[in-house]
Design a protein that fits this description.
There is one protein chain. The chain has a single domain, classed as 2-Layer Sandwich (Beta-Lactamase). It has 5 helices and 6 strands; from the N terminus they run ααββαααββββ. Strands 1, 2, 3, 4, 5 and 6 form a 6-stranded antiparallel sheet that branches. It is globular and about 40 Å long.
Length: 155
């Protein structure tokens, strides 16, 4: 999968699905006051908060991470976009994570999620006040799920 960059407009089509799904479900903006889709995609990639998304596979694979998320998980874009999203949580926490994602599938989103994640080097961190939501394209086709968080504590 292509790395977000100026040359590909920071994967603007996927960023727009993230933005529009968030707006539709939460009735607010992920990044307020952005004028264009391209500007939004760039700001999303360089945002001070973390945003990730995964696809619709039976064992979903991450298909997006902004720079902050890549830093927290200590992974390159290439490695992150090959990672099953369940592996972002330790095995002991995966059942709870699966329950949360099932709730999101049913209700559309949750906010105030809290859970422990693990980086590629084994650093554990608690994410707080996380929003997780379903992604849908402009034709209402399910495209996976995304998560946003701006609070984390290394354990």
């Amino acid at each position: 999968m292509e790395y977000p960059a100026e040359a590909n407009c920071f994967l603007v089509e996927h960023a727009v699905v993230i933005r529009d799904s968030y707006r539709q479900l939460l009735l607010k903006e992920l990044i307020p006051d952005v004028q264009s889709d391209r500007q939004f995609a760039k700001q999303l990639f360089y945002a001070p908060f973390a945003v990730v998304s995964h696809d619709t596979a039976s064992d979903p694979i991450f298909n997006y991470a902004n720079l902050k998320a890549l830093e927290l998980f200590e992974l390159s874009w290439e490695d992150f976009t090959r990672l099953p999203s369940r592996l972002s949580a330790e095995a002991v926490n995966q059942a709870k994570r699966d329950q949360v994602l099932a709730t999101v599938s049913e209700k559309g989103y949750i906010d105030h999620y809290e859970g422990v994640r693990i980086s590629s080097t084994g650093k554990r961190f608690l994410i707080k006040n996380t929003v997780i939501w379903n992604l849908a394209d402009k034709n209402s086709r399910y495209k996976g799920q995304a998560a946003w968080f701006d609070q984390w504590v290394f354990l």
